[in-house]
Amino acid sequence: MTSRLARVSRSLALALVAGFGVRESRAHPTVDFDDLPLAPNSYFNGPAPNGQVVGGPYGPVTRGTFESRGVQFVNNYDQTFGSWSGFAYSNTTDTTTPGFTNQFSAFAGSGRGPGHDNYGVAFGYDDLTPNLIDPTPFDPTNVAHLERLPHFLLPDGANIAGMFVTNTTYAALSMLEGDGFAKKFGGATGNDPDWFKLSAFGTDASGHVLSTSVDFYLADFRFADNRLDYVVRDWTYMDLSALSGAKTLYFNVSSSDAGPYGLNTPGYFAVDDVRFAQAVPEPSGLALAAAGASTFGLPSLRKRARGRRAS
Questions:
Q1: 172-205, pLDDT tens digit by residue?
Q2: CB neighbours (10 Å) of residue 155?
Q3: pTM of the model
Q4: Domain check: are 19 and 42 in the same one?
C-alpha cells in the first residue's frame, strides 16, 4: 500500500510540474549587435571563424555565422575575391561618400539610439525576373532559393516581433543621385514610379516555408504627388509579427530599376534592434509545482512512518 501511494504522489507531482510548466511569460530580447567586439569606424564582413568551406560560383566560399544576443546571422565570404554576402556588422558613419567603397555605412549615420554604435548590414538578393545572369526567377516557396538570401536563425522557442531597418549610404545615394549602374529614382522629371522593396520570408523549425511574407519599402516614388516620394534615411520599424512561428528569417530586395543583368539598385539594407519574444517558464508556476510535489509526498511519508512504528 505504501509503495502504491508513493507512486501516486510522484505521478501527481509530475503532473503538477507539467501543468504549471506550460504557463509561460514572455521575455523580449533585443538584438543590437553591441555585444560584438568592433574597433571604431570599422566593420566585419567575414570570414566567420566557425565557417566551413563550400563551393561558390567563382571559387571556395567560407560559410558560417556570427551571433548577437542568441540570434545567428549567416555570413558568406568569397576566398578568391574577398567579397561577401549575407550579413555583416559595422559601426561606420559615412553618409556622404557615394559608391561601393562605402558599402558598410547606414544612411542613418549610426546605430539606433545614443551610445549604440553597432548595427547589421545585409547584402544579397535573388532577381524576381529572368535575366542574362540568372535565367531562373526567384521562387519564395523554394527553400533552395531562400537559402541564397541573407538570413538569420532565432533561438529555440523564439517568435519574431520586428526589427528596425534603413538604407545603406551606398544604396540611398545611388537612388537619390544615380550612378554608373543605376538610375536616379524619379527620373529626370521626378515622375518615374520607382521603388526599392525589402521582403521577408520564413521557415519553421521543420524547414517548411510559411505561407505569409512581409514587404517594406526602403524607397517609394509611386505617389501622384512627388512631394510624398521618399528614400528611407532613419531607423524605421518593420513589423514581422506576421512571420511568428518562423525559426529562420530570409530577406530579399527588389527594385523597379532592373535590366538585362538583373538588379541595378545596390542590393543592401541595414538592420538594428531585432526584437523577438522568448518563452520562459513562469516562476510562480514552478514554485507552486514544487510545493504541490511536497504536499503530495507527505501522505506516503506518514504511512511509512506508521508502518515502522507498527513493526
A1: 999 999 999 999 999 999 999 999 999 999 999 9
A2: 15
A3: 0.83
A4: no
Indicate the SS3 state at residue 4. Answer: helix
Dihedral angle computed from the Cα positions of residues 197, 105, 99 and 135, in that order, rounded to the nearest 10 degrees: -40
Cα–Cα distance between 73 and 120 in angstroms, integer?
9
In angstroms, the CA 109 to CA 219 distance is: 17
For the domain that residue 57 is a member of, what is the CATH number? 2.60.120.1350
- Give the cell for residue 180: 554608373
Q: What is the pLDDT of residues 153-176, one digit of tens each?
A: 999 999 999 999 999 999 999 999
Residue 68 lies in domain: 25-281
Helices marked H in the chain — which ranges?
2-21, 143-146, 169-177, 283-310
Residues 105 and 230 in one domain: yes
Q: Determine the angle formed by the axes of helices 283-310 and 2-21, rounding to 10 degrees.
A: 180
Residues 134-144: b if buried by 16+ CB within 10 A, e if exposed:
eeeebebeeee
Burial (Cβ within 10 Å: 0-12, 13-18, ≥19) of residue 218:
buried
